[in-house]
Amino acid sequence: MSQVIPLGPGARMLTTREAAQRLGVSLRTVQLWVEADILPAARTPGGHRRIPYNAVEALALSTGLGGEPLARSARAARAKLEVVDSATNDFMAPHVSSQASAGSGPRPRDVLLVADSPIWQLRCEQALAPFMPTIGLRFAETGYLALLQIGQKTPDLLITNLELPGMDGLAMLRTLERCESIAGMRILALSHLDGAELKRRGGLPASAELMQLPVSPEGVAVRVGRWLLHQRVS
Questions:
Q1: Bridge pairing between strands 135-140 and 109-114
Q2: Which one of 8, 59, 62, 180 has the lowest number of neighbouring Cβ atoms within 10 Å?
Q3: For the chain, which residues make up each domain, given as ranges?
Q4: How do residues 13-50 score in pLDDT, each as one tens digit?
C-alpha cells in the first residue's frame, strides 16, 4: 500500500513507470510490489504514486533485477544442502537440472515452489525429476521472495506452503488476488490447517487446491503429474 514517507528536500522520486523501467519489470509488477510493501511509495496531491529512487536502487542491487534473473534463492538452498548431504548421506541422488534442454518442442511449464526448508526443496526437486523435460522448477523461501519472482515471471503452477516466515502464504495469495496477478495460474497450497480453518481466515483463491500436511514430496509429484496430464488434454 502507498504510505507517507519522510523525504529530504533533495530526495529523488520516480514514477511507477520509471521504476518499472529501471527494474526491468512490468508496470503492474511495480504496482503489485507497492501493494505488498516490497517498495515504499508516497502519493502526490493528485493521487499519483512516487517511489524513492534509493528504494528502487536498493531492490535492484539486492535481487539482481535489471540484470540477471532472480535465481539466488535456489542456489542458496542447494549450497546449504551440500552440508546436509555430506553429514547425513541421505540426499546423494545426482542433481537434475530444472532447466529444460534446448529444443524445438513445446515450452516447459513453469513451476514455482515456495517453501522455507532447503531439504524439502531438494526432495521435491528429486521427486519431480521425471517431469523435468516438461517443467522448469524454481524456488522461493518466503512469500516476499515469491512475489518478487512472480512479478518477474508468472508461473503456470505455484506450489506454496502456507506456513512461511515473514509474509506467509495466505498474505502472499491475497496480494496476488488484489493485483489480479493470479489469473491463469494454478495454485497448490500445502498447509497443516484444514479447509474450515482456512475458510475462517479468509479462504483460498478459487484457482487454489489444498493439500493438507503432512504430505510427501512424492505425493506432491503425483498431483503435479495429474496437472500436466490435464494440460495435455486441454
A1: parallel
A2: 8
A3: 13-63, 72-233
A4: 999 999 988 888 888 888 888 887 788 888 888 888 89
pLDDT in tens, 64-97: 666 433 344 444 444 444 444 444 333 323 333 4
Amino acid at 214: P
**Reported CATH class of domain 72-233:** alpha beta
pTM confidence score: 0.66
- Asked whether the domain spanning 72-233 has the same topology as the one spanning 13-63, the reply is no
C-alpha–C-alpha distance, residues 112 and 139, integer Å: 6
Could you give the CA distance from residue 117 to residue 151 in angstroms, rounded to a whole number?
Answer: 22
Cell numbers that stand for 13 in this block: 522520486
Q: At what angle do helices 27-35 and 16-23 cross, to 10 degrees?
A: 110
Domain 13-63 has CATH 1.10.1660.10: yes
Rounded to 5°, angle at Cα 154 from 142 and 70: 55
Of 121, 128, 109, the closest CA to residue 161 belongs to 121
Pair 138, 113: CB distance under 8 Å: yes
